[in-house]
Amino acid sequence: LHYPLRRQRQMCIRDRSIAVLPFKSFSDDIEKQYLADGMMDAILLNLSKIEDIRVMSRTSVEIYRNPLKSVSEIAEELGVEYILEGSFQKYGNSVRLIVQLIRAREDYHVWSNEYDRDWNDIFSVQSEVAKAIAGELHVVITPEESMLVDKIPTLNLTAYDFYQKGTEQLAMIKKNNPDNKTLLDRAEGYFKEAIRHDSSFARAYTGLAEVWYRKHYWATYLSSGFLDTVIVLCNKALSFDNNLSEAYRGKGICYYNRGSTEEAILELKNALKYNPNDYLSYSFLANIYTDLDNDFAEGIMNMHKAIIRYRGTELSDYLERLAGLYRGAGFPEKAEEYFKEAFSLHRDSARYYEYVAPLEPDPEDALRVAKRAEKLDPKRVVNFDLYSFLPSSYCNEAYECAQKAIEQAKSQGILSLWFYHRFGLAYWRVGRKKEAMEFFRMQIRYDEESIRLNRYKAEWGGSYYDLAATYAFLGENEKAYQYLEEFNRRKEKIGYFWIDLITKDPLFDPIRDVARFQTMENEIIYRARAEHERVRKILQEQGML
Questions:
Q1: Cα–Cα distance between 351 and 362 in angstroms, integer?
Q2: Out of 171, 347, 389, 472, which could bridge 480 as a Cys pair, Cβ 3.0 to 4.6 Å?
Q3: pTM summary value
Q4: What's the rounded Cα separation, in Å, for the pair 66 and 100?
């Protein structure tokens, strides 16, 4: 393990950590593999409900479905002390499950058992295995945890079968996969069938909620009912099972996207109450604390908690996100450390240069580093944001990059909420002022709507800042001051990155020498530096710096 990940392991209870590897299916029918996966997933989920055990996520172990490495090597890579292996078969109404618990460092088989049961007893087997493992790890299960582990999700096994098929479709979804829409449609069909067979099956409603979120997010972003359907489905699930972690997490994610900070934190903490190993909840808490509350200390600590529970194929993404948090908090050396760690996993030099470019204090140096990425991978587009702070001598390059970024956003069906005014600046500088004005108007319209609807960009403060910058460039100074004052009023904590933003932003150049603007700018700088020192002290106390 490289240094940062090795330090992650020091932050956890190593001798109570476990990874459940994908179970083998005895069946020759490949279509029956989902049953073995469902059994593995259920045992993993039951273990995750026990606070004193650190459990790696399912996505972390997927790459070891057909392992070429030894158990000790896998455990070392995952940062765990124990490995659970298993095999499963369903034949008629009977099932056979064989499991073995291995203490990885000594390659020692601590415990094993074989279960031959009736399919109707499947849930009791799942809880039995989880409790047996907890016993072998010398963990005391609280009465509340025991109740969660023993809970039966549905009495209808046909509904459970459809639910397992639906979750398997979701597990197959990958980033930039052209088949994702087909997989989502199939998952939706399976979850609806599960509900048709058992209308009180809580987990089927959360599965349907995830499908709806993935399918309709951007299409409904500016509607007054944004994500209402997801919240309704999660509440429906909770009406049947009020201890369901994924339902609380689903609501927390929705409230985060709607800019409701307190509600989002409350729901995600509820999710962790019932599943203290839910890395996704830790990950979204990191987002909420940094994006909505500008509390980088809490954000960084929660991101670390997510990473020690996740070693999946997107681990490099998570490390890059952690690096971004350190960068935003004003610790570029730590950021570079984790960007290098991410590079050691993905080995993509172009990607590395793209991510470390913003660490350069000089905008022209940042662009030169980013261009190395584009040279190594012609399909990779230089991050348009890098052009936002360059002098007008780069106007033609900025204009070309803006066009690429606009087309990319259109092809992905997303709104460029953070960039319309910067597209406008790029178009303005090459003399295309009519089109530039349209981009400025789009920025104003979307940010005013974000404020009216309290979307997370507004709660974060970005909408107020971008409106101030846009109006400053357009010469509507009173509106610029009004929104900048509102930004200062609303944000108790200010991330260190705001210093670079406001001191270099060319959109504020028309009023940069005005005393009223300078007073507001100095207030932002002072508060950002004070917050940076607060974060430094906390992270040093936690051994993270």
A1: 20
A2: 472
A3: 0.85
A4: 17
